[in-house]
């Protein structure tokens, strides 16, 4: 996909939005030009920036936490047949459960602060990364490990030169697949008892203040958050996993 | 150089692959281990590489008891063991990176090791410069094998172990790589041990040939092949006679 095509697609979407807004002519669908102005005002003079940063912090913190716990766990399970046999039924049962249904439960147990929101997103990403890294590590041929050991690698060097690079594509694939869900769940989590975050901002402007242009500015900001993270992961994949693309 | 003294090794208890097996290989010799599938050829190579340990008996290299992979032994496995995510150049550098990672501790790298990442002469010697930035998935089987050889020789080994190194190559590539390996053997003063199930290959590459039969292997059957480096050896009656002898002895084992 070229940048030009992406830009054209973005323009087409904006035009479509503009067209519908001109046909409907209702306050509930302001045109993108108006939303753009409000977005700028809300960022520079309003509190949208703060809400954006609050949401960004929750996604980034939960993502890092998920990578740091799920990737090593996946590597261990992928390399140990016995542990995998022990845990895989559990993972099999837990993996398909939509984690968003735990939002109220997590809120009850962990309170209404950042921790509960981070935990919910963490749960989604954790299983996704765990399963993909485990499968990737299971696919590592024992001969490969043997031959690297024969070059003098002990446990640490194996981790650094084999397991880490081998699990990287799985981590990035997992992130790419689940970043959309993570942002969606963030929205749901931010609807509950909080005063910071894009979810709260959208809900407040849409359902309490009836400030529709501001609500759309929030929607655009949330989309940009998701898109930005997606682009970041995509870029990292192109940079670090070039071998998967070219070979 | 390599002394295998009365080793017993089994993957499953009660079914030994080697039983009280003794064998010696001298410095700078070119050995081929020949035998049918499942005879324990690759197992012997893993034992010599220090990747597995015998249940009984000992293996000594240069008089030192072998308990773990030694930094001066190079091993090239059947499907080359290249990292799919690293370029040819980075694959060739892998052993150096591992040594730089640990430093000259005498366990992972020789005590006199000087940290380096210099691999260009080897890339050039093995004709890999043009594919140095390619990934293993993008190059031919012969180039992969050359990469694996370069990766091992960069570490300046004194023993080179190769497991079925030419099995998946087409005939012309196989011939040129066989010659290359023998050239390198002479040039670097290596102790070379190649595992194969192909009789003709054993006759062409082995100064000495160790025959293994169906397990358990208790005795080392060794056949000398002093003329193997002779330029016209491939077309000589001696070569054909040896192939015949190897075939009949393998059937008898």
From TrEMBL, chain A:
CDD domains: TM_PBP2. It is a multi-pass membrane protein. One of its GO terms (biological process) is transmembrane transport. Residues 52-233 form the ABC transmembrane type-1 domain. Pfam families: BPD_transp_1. The keyword Magnesium does not apply. Its main location: membrane. It is found in: Cell membrane. SUPFAM superfamilies: MetI-like. Gene3D superfamilies: MetI-like. GO terms for cellular component: plasma membrane. The keyword Transmembrane applies. The chain crosses the membrane at residues 56-78, 90-112, 118-137, 209-233. This is ABC transporter permease. It comes from Thermanaerothrix daxensis. The lineage of its organism: Bacteria, Bacillati, Chloroflexota, Anaerolineae, Anaerolineales.
UniProtKB/TrEMBL annotation, chain B:
Pfam families: ABC_tran (PF00005). PROSITE patterns: ABC_TRANSPORTER_2. Keywords: ATP-binding, Nucleotide-binding, Transport. SUPFAM superfamilies: P-loop containing nucleoside triphosphate hydrolases (SSF52540). Residues 2-239 form the ABC transporter domain. It comes from the Bacteria. GO terms for molecular function: ATP binding; ATP hydrolysis activity. This is ABC transporter domain-containing protein. It comes from Thermanaerothrix daxensis.
């Amino acid at each position: 996909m070229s940048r030009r095509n992406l830009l054209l697609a973005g323009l087409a979407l904006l035009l479509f939005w503009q067209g519908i807004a001109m046909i409907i002519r209702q306050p509930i669908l302001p045109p993108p030009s108006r939303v753009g102005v409000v977005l700028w005002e809300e960022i520079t003079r309003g509190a949208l920036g703060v809400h954006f940063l609050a949401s960004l912090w929750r996604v980034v913190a939960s993502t890092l936490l998920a990578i740091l716990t799920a990737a090593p766990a996946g590597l261990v399970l992928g390399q140990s047949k016995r542990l995998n046999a022990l845990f895989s039924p559990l993972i099999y049962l837990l993996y398909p459960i939509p984690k968003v249904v735990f939002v109220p439960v997590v809120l009850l147990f962990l309170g209404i602060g950042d921790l509960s929101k981070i935990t919910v997103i963490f749960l989604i990403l954790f299983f996704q990364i765990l399963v993909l890294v485990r499968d990737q590590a299971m696919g590592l041929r024992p001969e490969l490990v043997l031959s690297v050991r024969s070059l003098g690698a002990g446990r640490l060097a194996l981790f650094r030169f084999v397991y880490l690079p081998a699990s990287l594509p799985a981590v990035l694939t997992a992130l790419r697949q689940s970043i959309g869900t993570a942002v969606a769940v963030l929205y749901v989590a931010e609807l509950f008892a909080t005063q910071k975050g894009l979810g709260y901002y959208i809900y407040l402007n849409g359902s309490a203040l009836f400030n529709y242009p501001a609500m759309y500015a929030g929607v655009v900001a949330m989309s940009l958050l998701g898109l930005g993270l997606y682009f970041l992961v995509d870029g990292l994949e192109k940079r670090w996993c070039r071998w998967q693309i070219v070979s | 150089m390599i002394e295998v003294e009365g080793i017993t090794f089994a993957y499953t208890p009660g079914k030994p692959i080697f039983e009280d097996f003794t064998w010696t290989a001298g410095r700078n010799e070119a050995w081929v281990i020949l035998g049918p599938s499942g005879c324990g050829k690759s197992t012997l190579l893993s034992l010599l590489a220090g990747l597995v340990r015998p249940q009984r008996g000992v293996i000594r290299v240069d008089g030192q008891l072998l308990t773990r992979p030694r930094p001066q032994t190079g091993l090239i496995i059947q499907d080359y063991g290249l990292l799919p995510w690293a370029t040819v150049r980075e694959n060739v550098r892998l052993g150096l990176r591992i040594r730089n990672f640990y430093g000259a501790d005498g366990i992972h790298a020789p005590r006199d090791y000087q940290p380096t990442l210099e691999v260009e002469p080897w890339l050039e010697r093995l004709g890999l410069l043009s594919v140095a930035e390619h990934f293993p998935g993008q190059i031919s089987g012969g180039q992969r094998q050359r990469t694996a050889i370069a990766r091992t020789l960069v570490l300046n080994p004194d023993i080179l172990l190769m497991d079925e190194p030419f099995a998946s190559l087409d005939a012309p590539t196989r011939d040129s790589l066989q010659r290359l390996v023998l050239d390198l053997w002479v040039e670097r003063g290596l102790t070379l041990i190649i595992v194969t199930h192909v009789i003709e290959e054993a006759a062409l590459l082995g100064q000495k040939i160790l025959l293994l039969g169906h397990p358990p292997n208790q005795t080392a059957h060794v056949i000398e092949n002093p003329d193997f480096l002779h330029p016209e050896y491939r077309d000589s009656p001696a070569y054909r006679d040896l192939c015949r002898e190897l075939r009949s002895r393998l059937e008898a084992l």
